[in-house]
Structure formats: structure tokens, C-alpha cells
Amino acid sequence: MSKSFLDLPFELEENKHGYNQTLYKNILDVVNPKILKKQNRLKKWEYGYNSDYDFIVISKTGQIGQIIEIQNLRIALPATNEPFKRSKEKAEQYWEKAEYPKELNRIKTRFDWQEYPVDFKEKWFDYIDEEFRKREEGYWFYNKGIATYITGTHYMYLQWSKIDIGAPDYREANRLFYIFWEACKADNRCYGMCYLKNRRSGFSFMSSAELVNQATISSDARFGILSKSGSDAKKMFTDKVVPISVNYPFFFKPIQDGMDRPKTELAYRVPASKLTRRKLESNEQLRELDGLDTTIDWKNTGDNSYDGEKLKLLAHDESGKWERPDNILNNWRVTKTTLRLGSRIVGKCMMGSTSNALDKGGNNFKKLYYNSDVTKRNRNGQTSSGLYSLFVPMEWNYEGFMDIYGSPVFIREKDSIKGVDGYDITTGVIEHWQNEVEGLKSDQDSLNEYYRQFPRTEQHAFRDESKQSLFNLTRIYQQIDYNEEFNNIANTTKGKFIWENGIKDTKVTFLPDQNGRFTISWVPDKKNQNQVIIKNQVKYPGNEHLGAFGCDSYDISGTVDGKGSNGALHGLTKFSMEDAPPNHFFLEYISRPQTAEIFFEDVLMACVFYGMPILCENNKPRLLYYLKRRGYRGFSMNRPDKIWNKLSTTEKEIGGIPNSSQDIKQAHAAAIESYIEEYVGLNNEEYGDMYLQKTLEDWSRFDINNRTKHDASISSGLAIMACNKNKYRPVADIKRKPIYLGFKRYDNDGSISKIIK
Q1: Cα(38)–Cα(43) distance, rounded to whole angstroms?
Q2: What is the DSSP string of 326-384?
Q3: DSSP string of 728-746?
Q4: Are 362 and 320 in contact (CB under 8 A)?
Q5: Is residue 569 classed as helix, strand or coil in its secondary structure?
Q6: 716 φ, ψ (degrees, to nearest 5)
Q7: Please, what is the average pLDDT of the chain?
Q8: pLDDT tens across 278-288, in order?
Q9: CA 716, CA 428: separation in Å to the nearest integer?
């Protein structure tokens, strides 16, 4: 029994000494084996989304094989079908472009083909039919002993598309890309893909190849191109789309109108026939021709570029680089309507890009990318954008580090490896990337640009420029990189808090849970858990000396738009003599449960478990009233910048601190800034122990003039203020008056002292 290509990444994981990233996984036991066998025998599996099993069938043969998951999208692949074997030796089995028969190479058009004798045509009918079948159904071949499937679109790209280097090379990352894209095409809920890529990944050529591939088999259809500028779109059209079309074999090439190498529109339609005097005199019979009446063109960049059009496919290149006044979000809202008739999706968008800095178009693309998460769908089964997001880390698609089997060389090997480009690979791509990063650490903006161009994580891809942040982005990114490099997952645990035996106001227990709303990095010893002191029937925290919480709450369970801000809770330790890491953020909670009461209870349980007080903003007071009503007013801290007699009646009743005061805002931002300078990033050749990535990322984007979007920053800043409340204690304005003690004063000039009156 031959191995599947799906075994390959796991082999890489085992053989590359420490590299364990995989881009997809094999899903087992989705379909009952008996049902699978019966359906395959009857060829009953239909191309498209299968709601019974929640996967997308990309097979066009009626038979399916393995089911895989790529970025949370489940895809059913075709059943294995006699893979081509280049050689009997596994080491000699890899993709190789088949040579085009010389006899056919001489034929340039279908008109030339018509002139050849019947016996010649019959000789090549099977070859041509087989190429059409591969185009439709895809292609199987052995790659180092592994039966490997590529889609028909991928086959057309590899076998028949001409790019700047000649023929494209085979890459595992591109196979993944095309499988994902085929699923986007097959799924009637999907408008296409939003591909977050690294530079020089080949997307422009791959999307150009797909334009030509689809346009040459579609009738009465329109295909479009957009890029970060009109000149870029034109260049993609003239330098990529047109050469691919020109170099297609005659049997794939429809009748074309106009110039062979047009500048604005590629038209697959019958040209107008000119009636000449010679034709009239000879009574020449005009041949009836069939044309597709299909066009490919490009548009200048703008929010309304294809407004009012009906498109079958839009290649959307460099979408993360649309700068003001152009806006990719506005453009997509308009463009989306060109791909549908009513509720029915009739076209697809192939979108891909690296990201600019956030204020140079990157932020809009970031929103679009995360709005394309397949795990977050509306009741119609669609993502917020309608697209499906895909990210492939740079190490999977970096030029110069691909072996002849299309697999990345992640880690340095003992011996050099022959690359697909013919050059020897002497180092691993990860080591190469790390060396580049190390060389740029003294220039944070250059480092961030490198991260955006060649990201290993989604966070790298959306790195911002350091000059745009209120806080020290250098330190923040140092910490983020450190956490990612050393796998901070090992330092944090996801989970939830529950009341013991389900009885409220008793003891609280923490349960690890991958789907839990809490992320924690430290818990106190058993003796310091659930330390609650009761005075006059009011509960007080018993571990105030250990640390405190900060909280950004919300009052309304639901919102009109279904979004609303998240509730946020952060826990921070103080310096103490107890066995606790000092000045350490140990808890992060950024979520919006279905009801506000669930959030309040989560906050309460965290406070009880750790036995620490909490400082909240009192402009949204429901949480504070909730704590008071439950008997936990002692946990709610008063604002530290005022003495008790200066508090308002409401502040005395429930505690909390207002967010309207400019002084409070400045103090809050200064608290975060001070903490970052002391405890985040590289300091005295040691890295900080701040492992909460969401909070670090929120700090990097914090805007003091628009605080509502930064729940994590508000909450964490309040935790810092709570742990350092003495810094904000008001100093009494004491007026000093001279005190008369009754002593006489004397003038000692001369021989006799005199009393000074």
C-alpha cells in the first residue's frame, strides 16, 4: 500500500530535528467506511460543499479518498488514480514537466489543426483528450515514493504556464494553495480566498495562470485584475497573463480577437470578418466560427473599480498595500456585488498579498483577513467577508530552499542538498531567516519590514512601524519574538474557573480547558488559594500583598451590530516575600460571553481564587454593583488618587475609578509605559516574563485618543495602577504657620542687651 502525500509533513517533522510545524492534518473516521466504499462504487460524491459531513468535495470523479484540514477548512480529495511514476527508484521520483510533442508544437492555431489529415489527428486525439482530463480532474504522480495529488488548476500552472524563469517549479506550499483554492471554488458559500503570503511566493503568476485557465473554458464571461495601482495591474496583465495565454498549446487556445499581445483587454471571441471584393467575385463561402465571447482586462485602483460589472473571477493582487485614499475594505464591499446574482455566488475572488505597515493599508487588509476566518460564520454559513483566509509561513515557500521534491529544507543537513533550481542548499531556511533577523535587531523598523515581507506567523505579517506607537515597540516586539521563539504555550495554560461542587461563594477551582476564556501563567500555592476574609458580613481579599486585578468591563449583553467591545481582566503580582514571581502578569481574559452576567461571574471567581482585589472603571458600573450585591464590596478597590472623604457617594458605595479624567488617562498610559520599560523585552541581557501575547499586541497598537478599541490595554493598565496604588495617593496640602513659644528675643549690640519688642 503506497503512502499518501499527507504523510510527508509528518516525516519532515520526524527527520528535521525539532521542526514541528505542519500546515494541514489528516482527518480520520469522518465517513463510515461502508458508506464511503458504497458511495465511491456508485460515484455519488458531488463536487461542492457536503453539509452532511461538513467538508468540501473537490473531486470531479464522484469518488473521494483522504479528508484533510487546511486552516480549519475540511476538504475531501479525489480517490487515488494510478499515479505517474517517473522512475522505479524513489529518489528519482519527482515532478517533471512533460515534453510537448514536436509534431504538435508546430501547430499554432486550431485553423492549422484543421488542415492536417485525419490519420494525423487520430494519432493525437488520445493525447489531447488526456490533457483535457488532467485539466478537469487533476493529476497524480509519485513524489519520492509518495502518491501525490495536484489539482487541475495546479497542473495547468506547472505544465502549460510560462513565467519569468520559464516553467514554474513544483512546491509543496503551492500544492496546498491550489487545493485550498479548489475548495473555495467548489464551496457555494464562498466568494474566494484571502491569502496572506510572503514575498516572491509566486502568487501573481499563479493567479494569472488561473485567469487564463478559467477564461479559456468559459463562455460569455468577464475576468478582471486589480492591484495596488493601475500600473501594477497593467503590468500583471501584459507581463504575466498575456504571455501565459500566448504560450498555451493550440488545443487549449480559443479564437482570439485583436492583437496577439494586447495592452488593455484579452478577448476570446470571433473577430469581425471583413467582406472583400475578391470574396464577392469568387462567391467564397464564409466559415462559421464559434467564439467564447470572454474577456480578461484590468482596472485602475479605486473603491469602485468594477462597480456594476459581473465577474467570474477577479485576481486581486497586492491587496494589503492599498494606501489612502484607496481602501481595500471599501473596494471589497463593492466588488463583492460583482460576484453574485441576488444571493447566488457566480464568481470568485483570488486575493493575495503581503501587508504594508498598518497605517499604510495594512490595517484594512488585516481586518479583511481576520474577517475571513472559516471558524466564524453567520447563519448563512458565510464568513464576515465571504472569503476564506489562508496563511502559509515563509519557510514553506522561500526561494532557494526547495529540494527537487518541492519540500522546504528547514534545518541544516550534514551534506548539501540539490535544490529544485539546480543549486546546492547548504543551510536550512529557518537558520537563514534567523540570521537575517539577528542582523536587523539594531534597526527595529527594518526588522519589522523584513517580518512583514517574510513572516513565519500571522503576527509577523502585520507588524507595525515602531514610530507609530505610544509605547516602546522595540521592547514589545522583542518580547513577542522571544515568546514565539521559545514557544510560550509551554508557559501559559488555557482554562476556566468553577465553584467547587457548583456551589457559589464557596471555593473556586481552576480547570485546564483548551476552549477556556482564561490564559494563566501562574497559580498561588494551595495555602494561598481562596483567601477570603469576612468583616461585618463583607468579604475582603486575603492576598492583597501578592497582587491585584485590573478590569475593563461592559454592561450590555448584546449589541446592535453583534460585535461590541470585549470584557478584559488582567492579574499582576507585586514584589512580596511569598513564593510568587514579582511584577508578573499571570492572567489574561479577553472575551465577550453571551451575557454580561457570565463575564461578571468569571471575574468574581478569578478574584476569589487568587484572593486579590480588583480596580475597575466605574463608568460601566454593573460589575461593581454585582460584586457589592454578592457581598464582595471589599474586593473592589477605591480610586487610588483620592482619599475617602473626597470620594463621591457612588464611589463610596461601589468603588472603581472614572475614565473621563485626562489626568487618569495620562496616569494609566504612564503606568503601562513604565512597566514596559522595566519588565518587557530585553533588559540587562535578560528577557521579561510577560507571556500574554494578545496584551502585548494590544499595547503595540494602543491609541490614547481612542481607548475603546483597546480592552486589553485598559485592563492591564488598571492592574499596574492597582499594584502601585501608593504612587497615586494624594499629598495633603498642609499650610505651615509660625508657632509662638513665648521666648524673648534680645539685641546684643553694645555692652547691654536689650529686649526686642
Answers
A1: 8
A2: --HHHHHHHHGGGGEETTEE--EEEEEE----GGGTHHHHHHHHHTT-TTSB-TTS-BS
A3: GPPPP-PPP---------E
A4: yes
A5: strand
A6: -65, -35
A7: 88
A8: 444 554 444 45
A9: 39
Q: Are 17 and 431 in contact (CB under 8 A)?
A: no
Q: What is the DSSP string of 77-139?
A: EEPP---B-S-SSGGG----PPPPPHHHHT--SHHHHHTS-HHHHHHHHHHHHHHHHHHHH-E
Torsion, Cα 314 317 320 321, to 10 degrees, reads: -120
Q: Which residue has the cell 481579599?
A: 541
Q: How far, in whole angstroms, is CA 291 from its chain's centroid? A: 42
* Sign of the dihedral through C-alpha 160, 165, 170, 174: negative
Residue 615 bridge partners (DSSP): 550
**3-class SS of residue 179:** helix
Q: Cα(19)–Cα(16) distance, rounded to whole angstroms?
A: 6
Residues near 23 by beta carbon (within 8 Å), at least 6 away in sequence: 9, 70, 173, 176, 392, 393, 396
Helices 711-723 + 662-679 axis angle, to 10 = 80
Cα 137 from Cα 151, distance rounded (Å): 7
pTM: 0.77
Rounded distance between C-alpha atoms, residue 593 and residue 237, angstroms: 48
Q: What is the DSSP string of 260-281?
A: SS-SSEEEESPPPPP--HHHHH
Q: What domains lie within the chain, and their CATH numbers?
A: 3-271+291-395 (3.40.50.300), 409-486 (no CATH), 489-728 (3.30.420.240)
| Amino acid identity, position 698 | D
Longest alpha-carbon distance in the chain: 152
C-alpha cell at 95: 515532478
229: number of Cβ within 10 Å? 16
Cβ atoms of 552 and 718 within 8 Å: the answer is yes
Looking up cell 491587496 gives 319
User: Radius of gyration over alpha carbons of the chain, in Å?
Assistant: 34
Report which of 507, 501, 500, 509 is spatially closest to residue 532, judged by C-alpha positions.
507
Percent helix / strand / coil, the chain, rounded to 5: 35, 20, 45
Q: Do 32 and 49 form a contact (C-beta atoms < 8 A)?
A: no
φ, ψ dihedrals at 28, nearest 5°: -105, 160
Beta bridge partners of 495: 512, 518
- Give 276's pLDDT tier (boundaries 50, 70, 90): very low
Return all residues near 394 (Cβ < 8 A) that are at least 6 apart: 198, 429, 433, 454, 455, 456
Q: Estimate the crossing angle of helix 172-186 against helix 152-160, to 10 degrees.
A: 130
pLDDT-based confidence at residue 303 (cuts at 50, 70, 90): confident
Q: Taking the alpha carbons of 165, 169, 173, 176 in that order, is the dihedral positive or negative? A: positive
Output the nine-digit C-alpha cell for 12: 519532515
pLDDT tens for each residue of 669-725:
999 999 999 999 988 888 999 999 999 989 988 888 778 788 999 999 999 999 999
